């Protein structure tokens, strides 16, 4: 299907000033530029994510990073095709439902003319990939580590985090080093969680370990974790695979320690060790393998970002990779629009990303800033690391060899 042409501009003018002449200029189109003459332009970047319900904290972490970047970019000033442009973030709640996310994305593209829509949910992204090259084309800024979205061969998808399958080998090595050969499975039962469970199960078996029953549970709806934890511990595991949003993951690990578990935890990338330490005592989290906390990165903009985040979210809040990676990816999108010379053509914006990466200001480089984007659309930093939280409550960095996104 051919996409409906977008209006060439979004003038920031009072409604009463928008005349028939101005509308006629917009209808004329004009080479994919950011707008007609007169006044500053604006562009909407769409966001659909869980802003209520069990995934709200996760969804709001993403939203905070996006909004922080929008505020900074607008303060710095963005110029596209010789015009000053103001970025507006428009957010819609999808409650983690893929069908709702797809409807939201279509609405943002149709009604708000968003050239880019951000989604932090693998299932939602897969649903959105079915429509983003339809009646209103738009690029997907995909915050998921699920490689399946790259395997969909969608030319207008940009994947932000590392492929989670890269974590399976170092997790297994560290789990066996600090635990033993038997692994219990207590991950989230979502589609994404089950893919993680399969990846870690395959790698664990490959290394000569044994796997207990799949005791995956709904991290979004279950509130009493004593029963599921007891069932997993009855298998007498040396290590436990856990993970979903940080809060329920922390409570599961706390419950396991209360029931006497002394082994190691393999923590899925959605849960963050330092964020979980605000939910339970850090001693319940030690002897765990997880993703590296944002504060442990040495990117040039990291320290200022953390300071700014504390001012925005509060000193008691922990900046997670959801916030940090989306902060820097928004800067990449803005720079790509500048390089492409358009705020309305998603094909040109996506094509400009490779050149844009080297032009992003250091202040936006906060969390393993990518140095390249693959042909499939995956942002990559070659120096990926995970961490082991030891008994002394210290983080040890562990290098990760990244795997291919291909099937």
From TrEMBL:
The keyword ATP-binding does not apply. Pfam families: Peripla_BP_6. Residues 1-24 form the signal peptide. The keyword Signal applies. It comes from the Bacteria. Keywords: Signal. Gene3D superfamilies: 3.40.50.2300. Residues 43-387 form the Leucine-binding protein domain. InterPro entries: BCAA_transport, Leu-bd, Peripla_BP_I. Belongs to the leucine-binding protein family. PANTHER family: LEUCINE-SPECIFIC-BINDING PROTEIN, PERIPLASMIC BINDING PROTEIN OF ABC TRANSPORTER FOR NATURAL AMINO ACIDS. This is ABC transporter substrate-binding protein. It comes from Brevibacterium picturae. The lineage of its organism: Bacteria, Bacillati, Actinomycetota, Actinomycetes, Micrococcales.
């Amino acid at each position: 299907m051919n996409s409906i042409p977008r209006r060439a501009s979004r003038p920031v003018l009072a409604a009463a000033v928008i005349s028939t002449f101005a509308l006629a200029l917009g209808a004329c189109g004009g080479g994919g530029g950011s707008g007609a003459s007169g006044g500053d332009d604006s562009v909407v970047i769409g966001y659909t994510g869980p802003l209520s319900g069990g995934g709200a904290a996760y969804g709001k972490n993403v939203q905070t990073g996006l909004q922080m970047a929008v505020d900074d970019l607008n303060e710095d000033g963005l110029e596209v095709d010789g015009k000053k442009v103001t970025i507006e973030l428009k957010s819609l709640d999808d409650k983690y439902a893929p069908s709702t996310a797809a409807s939201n994305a279509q609405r943002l593209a149709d009604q708000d003319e968003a050239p880019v829509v951000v989604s932090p949910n693998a299932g939602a992204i897969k649903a959105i990939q079915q429509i983003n090259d339809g009646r209103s084309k738009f690029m997907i800024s995909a915050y998921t580590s699920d490689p399946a979205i790259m395997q969909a061969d969608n030319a207008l998808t940009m994947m932000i985090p590392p492929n989670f399958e890269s974590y399976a080998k170092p997790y297994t090595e560290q789990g066996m080093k600090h635990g033993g050969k038997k692994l219990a499975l207590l991950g989230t039962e979502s589609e994404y969680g089950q893919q993680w469970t399969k990846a870690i199960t395959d790698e664990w078996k490959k290394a000569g370990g044994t796997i207990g029953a799949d005791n995956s549970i709904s991290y979004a709806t279950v509130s009493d974790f004593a029963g599921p934890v007891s069932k997993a511990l009855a298998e007498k595991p040396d290590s436990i695979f856990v993970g979903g949003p940080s809060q329920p993951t922390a409570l599961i690990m706390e419950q396991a320690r209360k029931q006497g578990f002394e082994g190691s935890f393999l923590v899925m990338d959605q849960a963050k060790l330092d964020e979980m330490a605000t939910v339970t005592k850090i001693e319940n989290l030690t002897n765990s393998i997880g993703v590296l906390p944002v504060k442990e990165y040495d990117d040039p903009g990291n320290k200022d970002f953390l300071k700014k985040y504390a001012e925005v979210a509060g000193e008691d809040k922990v900046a997670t990779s959801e916030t940090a990676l989306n902060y820097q990816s928004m800067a990449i999108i803005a720079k790509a629009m500048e390089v492409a010379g358009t705020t309305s053509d998603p094909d040109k914006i996506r094509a400009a990303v490779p050149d844009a990466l080297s032009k992003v200001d250091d202040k936006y480089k906060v969390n393993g800033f990518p140095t390249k984007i693959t042909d499939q659309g995956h942002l990559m930093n070659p120096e990926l690391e995970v961490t082991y939280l030891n008994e002394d409550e210290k983080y040890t960095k562990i290098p990760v060899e990244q795997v291919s996104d291909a099937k």
